[in-house]
Amino acid sequence: MGLRVVYPARIADTAGRSGRFKQGGLMSLLTKFNLALVVVFSAAMVPVGWVAHALLQRSARTQVIQNARIMMETAMAVRGYTIKQIKPLLDARLAEQFLPQTVPAYSATEIFNNLRQSHPEYEYKEATLNPSNPRDRTVDWEADVVNEFRRDPRKTEIIGERDTPEGRALFLSHPIQIKDPRCLACHLTPEEAPASLVKQYGPSNGFGWKLDDIVGAQIVSVPMSIPVAMADNAFKTLLFSVAGVFGFTLLVLNLLLRFAVIAPLTQLASMADQVSRGNMDLPDLTIKGKDEVALLGGSFNRMRISLQKALAMLDEA
């Protein structure tokens, strides 16, 4: 009489629950995978974000300074144009009427004020220790900048920050040095200066200048909130871009994991559950490819067939 393998109801039920538990565990691999990626990405973004934010802050500050340099060069060009082309045309009228348009500092300041209509965040001043026009007189911190240039005539630029009632401000300054003798026509002595200029501003200020003297500084100021805002906007754009790339990558990896790993393992777990219940009449599990999952599926098919043959031999014994 042959032997027959019998699966008691309790054992079959236990095996079924075990199979269902394993299948649920396999499905949770996707969650674990996503959680691991999110944790790794978040941990990596902390130092990367800190470094990126610092670099963007530095880049924005450099960009603002470069814009200030361009504006400074524009002001210098206006000064040269005024001295060479405007002043000679109006010199004859200065004896009767003072024309501020002949003053290089006035022309540069007015041009910059027009420029501020489109860039109101930038400020320009030709800060002078002893000016003819009171609006050009240095305040305390501007005098410090001018004196720094006077202490070291080789220095051609000073970049710094200062506190203002509106917050921190960034400034760029270049020295104003008398290199053209024509600039001294109005600044040697009250007697040599145009009478209209002396009448306009008085005989006490703006005189005694000498050739090669550093008499002031061109200063372009901009609130620090401008480069900070530029850096913050760039940082937000970077974060959104990185998050978008990460989200797309995560989606692609999820799809790949689901179809290449999760789906075959789910089929394998379901078949193992059926075999554990005593159901041997199952088609072979087909997993395409030559990766580890496909090898596992092939091994399981051979094991099921071997188990089926062994049970059949026991039945025939």
Helix content: 55-70%
Contiguous uncertain segments of 5+ residues:
1-27
Tally of individual helices: 6
Provide the CATH topology of the largest domain. Beta-Lactamase
Radius of gyration using CA atoms only: 42 Å
Alpha-beta content class: alpha+beta
Provide an overview of this structure.
The protein is of the alpha+beta class and 317 residues long. It folds into 2 domains: 126 residues, no CATH class; 158 residues, Beta-Lactamase (2-Layer Sandwich), CATH 3.30.450. It has 6 helices and 4 strands; from the N terminus they run ααβαββαβαα. A 4-stranded antiparallel β-sheet has the order 1-4-3-2. The protein starts with 8 loop residues before the first helix and ends with a helix.
Draw up the topology in text.
Layout: H1 9-90, H2 104-115, E1 123-128, H3 140-151, E2 158-164, E3 167-177, H4 195-201, E4 214-223, H5 225-276, H6 292-316
Antiparallel strand pairs: 1-4, 2-3, 3-4
